[in-house]
Amino acid sequence: MVDYKKAFQAGLKAARTARETKEEVQKVIDQFDAAVRESSGGVIGIRWEPIRKSGSVFDKLATTAAPMSPIPKEPWLVAVNLTAQPEIREPLAKCEMADKGYPVELRWRTRVSECNDRESLEAALRALLEDSVTGEKLLKLMSPESQPT
Description:
Layout: H1 4-39, E1 44-52, H2 57-64, E2 73-81, E3 88-98, E4 101-108, E5 111-115, H3 118-130, H4 132-142
Antiparallel strand pairs: 1-2, 2-3, 3-4, 4-5
Helix pairs in contact: 1-3
């Protein structure tokens, strides 16, 4: 016979563990943001925000078959010039978190990092910052000509 009470307790435990893990992932992202803000003199911040899928089959379907339906979005880490009005954004990496927290998958350019714990997430974020294309995006955000006139 199935023990539903035991299954119920297991589900609650899994939910608590997932919450703790997601909080840990968010803390790592917050530390990443704080380090970028400090390094840029408060000019650049990092946000985790949804970006509309572009150039995909979903776009074509969304605009032709059901123009009033919501357009699919993907979670991204985005660098933001915090001093510009309006803010200027540069997407850095697609960043998807599993329902239970880990794994977190980071995708930028041709690189894919599947992070199964805090250490691997921190290493992937470090590699993202060390990437030359990321560096170009950050320079662009910091340059005076990126400011709207």
